Each structure stands twice: as C-alpha cells, then as structure tokens.
C-alpha cells in the first residue's frame, strides 16, 4: 500500500503529482470531446442495417410451406391456410394453391434468433429495425399477418455487398453456368463446398 | 444617497448574489460533471439544455414532507440547516466585488471575521449529527468535526501568510496590496488555502463526513424537504465562498488586465467562476480520501507546509 501522506500520489515513477495531473487531463479531455449520449425519444437512434427489431412478413411471397413454424425453437409462429383451386385457361386441370389465412408471431415468446428469416425459401420474412412495439398487456404482443405486413415498409434495403467478401452464391453459380458450355440441368445448383473452398 | 437606501442596496445585492451564484455554480456542476463523464446532464427542465433544473429541484424539495425523527432533538434538529447556511451569507457580506467599496460591508478585520464565521460551520455539522439520533449521522458528524477542526489550522495559517504579506486584515486592503508576482511567492499558501477550503466545505475528494457509499448521507441522512435543500444550498454557497476567498486573497480580486475601476466586478466574478470550475473539476477527477489519509494530508502535509510558507513570507517581508 502506498504511503497515503504523499499528496502527489507518486505511484511508480515520474514527478510527484503526475498521476493527479493525468487524472485532471482525462476529465478535461472527456469534457471537451463530444458526449456519447443518444437522446433517444427526441432523436431516433442510428441502428446498424442488420438490427433485429421485429420480423416483417411479405404475405405475397409466402407459400405456406410451414418451414418457419417448424424451425422456430419456441413455436411462436402460428400458421393456418386452406387450398384454393385456380383454373388456368388452357390447362388440363385446375391448379391448387395455398392461401394464407393466419400468420401470427407471438413476440412475447420470440427470442429473435432469426431462424425463421434464415429458413424461409421464398423471402417472405425479413428483419426490420423497428423496435417500438411495446405493449401494456402481454397478450397484445401477438401480431397477425396484417400487422406483420405493415412492418414491411420499415425493412431497409439490403446492405451493399462487401467488396472484400466472397461473391454471392448466385454469382458464382451464374459464372460457372456461363463457363460450362452446356450445363446439365442438375448443375444449376452449385455443389456445396465448391465455391466455399477459400472461406473454410 | 441617504444611509438607508445605501444599506438596502448593499444588503439586497448580497442577498441576490447569495441566491443566484450558488444556482449558477450548481447548474455548472451538473453540466460540467456530465460532460466530464461523457454525458449531457439535464436537458429538459426549462427547455434550453435544462437551464432550470435547479429551480425544478427547488420546487420539488419544497413539496416534500418535512420529517423530524421521533427520537430527534427537535429544536436543534430544525435549527441546524439555518446554522449551516447563515455563516456563508455573512461571509458574502464582506467579500469585496470591486474597488471603491463595492462590497456589502467594508470591514477592517474582514479576514478575521471571515475565518471566524466560516468556523461556525462545524457547529451546524455537530448539531445535525447529534440531534438526528441516527448512528450514520453521528459517524458523519464526528468525522466532519475532526475534519473541520483539523483543516481550520492550515486554512488560517495560509490566510495569515497573505495577511502578513499585505500587512492588513482588510480584504479590500489585501486586494489593493496584491501584486502579480505574489502568485509565485504565495503559491504554496494558495494551494494550501484552496485544499483546506475544499475540506472545510466537505467537497469531494474530502467528503468523508458525507460519504454516501458508506454513511448513507452522513449528518444529512435524516433531513428531508426544505431543510435538506438548505444543506445542499449551503454546500454550493460554500463553493462560492471558498472560490471568492481564494480569488480575493491569492488571485488579486478585482485586479484584471485593464479597466480595474470600471470592470473590477467582472474580473472578480470571472475569477470566482474559474476557481469554482476547478472545485467541480477536482470533484469529478479524484476519488474520496480515506479518513486516515484525510487527517494525514492535513497534519503531515498542509500544516508543516503552511508553517514553512509563513516563515518564507516573513523572511521576504523583512528583506524587502
């Protein structure tokens, strides 16, 4: 324990009192630099583009494949649908398509893991940075497909591709397709690992 | 000008200073401390950068219930905040703002009066501590008494040094005798006076009697509402008083770069606010001294140093 009588607080080396001056310098420097306070209710925060605020639903993209509901770790997505027959003129028989009746996400259960967004094969689910949907009653955190659809307007455009990152799978696939003179129909999808060799 | 008009003007002026300067210092403390910690501080009260925060605080304190503990010594308990506040008001009365008697009450023994009246503060601390019937209050009060009695000595000795240098006890006389090279000659006394003054008003890093992390709030623990606000106000008036005394005794009071006769009050105020800023700055920068460190600093550093300064002052006075 250092001698408390030393007013200079000469901890270690240097002039006595250097530590005291250093302390004053730190506070003065902090005072003259900009404060980090975000004045939230007055000024909207600048959120990073991939913020996980709420899950938005693009209803027309949904095919009721139920992948999201099945992959959801805490079963917070509720989907109901019925089949409709669509008579296509010129077709031999009417086609069937799924019509979404109910698409609810219970945000009191959701843990924002984003698996549903990842797993959706038709890009019907998106992350929106919107976060101001607190409710007084936990029941009101169950949002239906209309409400989820309203959040589509707040979904930001996807961030630009990182020029240093590896190219998108679609691009490499198109490049390989162009390189191969006549690709077999099965080669539309790139083999896993063929384009990720540099990453791993 | 008839006597009574002059009297009303002087007392009124001191009262206005007593009511506004502490608020300015308090608001400055809010903002300076916040920015030193990377925050913004109050931003809403009053609209523009929270300028009315202390007014709002005052309104809140007035609305609070005034509680006196059942076991408390009622009369003493209720009197203590006033005893804490009034000495500083009296001190402000004799601190010169500018030349030509721009002072509440010119007093030939001004320095003596100031030191004597500031010493009354310890009585308020002990009154509130004993009367609260609370162990934390008592601990804080005893710490406060030990601290105030200890630091009174270097405070008086440092002030005596400058009084010896000026050859007068009048505060105006000291300012008139002051010359810029005294900044060097009296520098140790200035530092001692300033540090001891900080301890006298129990400001961090000398806030062991209050020590909110261990003693709740020291001798102010049991106080609520307006009486508590009085204690807080006393703390901020204390900052003004210590800053003003440092200004008058060691920084040349109204002596500025030019136009001392017309702008003397401005130089004094600027110096007072600069010293107040340093007081706030120290609070933000340094942690609280432990009780033994506090006493050690007083008795082993400040008292010998102030005695040495007295010897130096006497030697220089005789030599010149």
Automatic annotation (TrEMBL), chain B:
Chemical reaction(s) catalysed: a quinone + NADH + 5 H(+)(in) = a quinol + NAD(+) + 4 H(+)(out)
GO MF term set: NADH dehydrogenase activity; oxidoreductase activity, acting on NAD(P)H, quinone or similar compound as acceptor; quinone binding
EC number: 7.1.1.-
Top-level taxonomic group: Bacteria
Residue stretches spanning the membrane: 7-26, 75-97, 109-132, 153-175, 181-199, 228-252, 264-285, 297-319
Protein's cellular compartments: Cell membrane; Membrane
Class of enzymatic activity (EC top level): translocase
One GO CC term on file: plasma membrane
Pfam families: NADHdh
One BP term from GO: aerobic respiration
Record keywords, A-Z: Cell membrane, Membrane, NAD, Quinone, Translocase, Transmembrane, Transmembrane helix, Ubiquinone
Bilayer topology term: Multi-pass membrane protein
Biological role stated in the UniProt entry: NDH-1 shuttles electrons from NADH, via FMN and iron-sulfur (Fe-S) centers, to quinones in the respiratory chain. The immediate electron acceptor for the enzyme in this species is believed to be ubiquinone. Couples the redox reaction to proton translocation (for every two electrons transferred, four hydrogen ions are translocated across the cytoplasmic membrane), and thus conserves the redox energy in a proton gradient. This subunit may bind ubiquinone.
Family: Belongs to the complex I subunit 1 family.
Protein name, UniProt field: NADH-quinone oxidoreductase subunit H
Origin species: Micromonospora acroterricola
């Amino acid at each position: 324990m250092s001698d408390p009588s030393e007013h200079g607080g000469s901890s270690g080396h240097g002039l006595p009192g250097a530590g005291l001056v250093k302390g004053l310098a730190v506070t003065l420097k902090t005072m003259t630099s900009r404060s980090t306070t975000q004045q939230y209710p007055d000024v909207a925060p600048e959120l990073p583009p991939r913020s996980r605020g709420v899950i938005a639903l693009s209803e027309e993209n949904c095919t009721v494949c139920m992948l999201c509901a099945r992959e959801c770790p805490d079963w917070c997505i509720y989907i109901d649908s019925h089949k409709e027959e669509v008579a296509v003129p010129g077709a031999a028989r009417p086609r069937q398509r799924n019509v979404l009746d109910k698409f609810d996400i219970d945000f009191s259960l959701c843990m924002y893991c984003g698996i549903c967004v990842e797993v959706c094969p038709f890009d019907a689910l998106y992350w929106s940075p919107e976060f101001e949907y607190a409710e007084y009653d936990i029941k009101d955190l169950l949002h239906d497909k209309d409400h989820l659809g309203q959040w589509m307007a707040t979904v930001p455009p996807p961030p630009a591709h990182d020029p240093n990152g590896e190219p998108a799978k679609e691009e490499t696939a198109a490049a390989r397709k162009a390189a191969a003179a006549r690709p077999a129909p099965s080669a539309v999808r790139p083999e896993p690992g063929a384009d990720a060799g540099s990453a791993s | 000008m008839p006597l009574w008009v002059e009297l009303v003007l002087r007392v009124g002026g001191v009262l206005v200073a007593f009511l506004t300067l502490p608020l300015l210092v308090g608001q400055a403390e809010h903002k300076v401390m916040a920015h030193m910690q990377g925050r913004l501080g109050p931003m809403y009260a009053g609209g523009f950068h929270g300028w009315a925060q202390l007014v709002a605080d005052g309104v809140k304190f007035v609305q609070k219930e005034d509680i006196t503990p059942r076991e408390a010594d009622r009369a003493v308990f209720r009197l203590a905040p006033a005893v804490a506040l009034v000495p500083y008001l009296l001190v402000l009365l004799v601190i010169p703002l500018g030349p030509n008697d721009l002072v509440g009450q010119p007093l030939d023994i001004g320095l003596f009066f100031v030191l004597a009246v500031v010493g009354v503060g310890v009585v308020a601390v002990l009154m509130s501590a004993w009367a609260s019937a609370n162990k934390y209050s008592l601990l804080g009060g005893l710490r406060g008494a030990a601290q105030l009695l200890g630091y009174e000595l270097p405070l008086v000795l440092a002030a005596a040094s400058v009084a010896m240098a000026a050859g007068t006890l009048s505060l105006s006389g000291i300012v008139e005798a002051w010359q810029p090279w005294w900044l060097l000659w009296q520098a140790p006394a200035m530092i001692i006076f300033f540090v001891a003054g900080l301890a006298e008003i129990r400001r961090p890093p000398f806030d062991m009697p209050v020590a909110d992390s261990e003693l709740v709030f020291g001798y102010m623990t049991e106080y609520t509402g307006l009486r508590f606000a009085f204690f807080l106000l006393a703390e901020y008036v204390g900052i003004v008083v210590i800053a003003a005394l440092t200004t008058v005794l060691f920084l040349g009071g109204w002596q500025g770069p030019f136009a001392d006769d017309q702008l003397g009050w401005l130089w004094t105020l600027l110096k007072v606010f600069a010293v107040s800023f340093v007081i706030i700055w120290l609070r933000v920068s340094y942690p609280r001294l432990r009780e033994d460190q506090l006493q050690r600093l007083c008795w082993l550093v400040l008292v010998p140093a102030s005695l040495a300064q007295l010897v130096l002052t006497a030697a220089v006075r005789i030599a010149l």
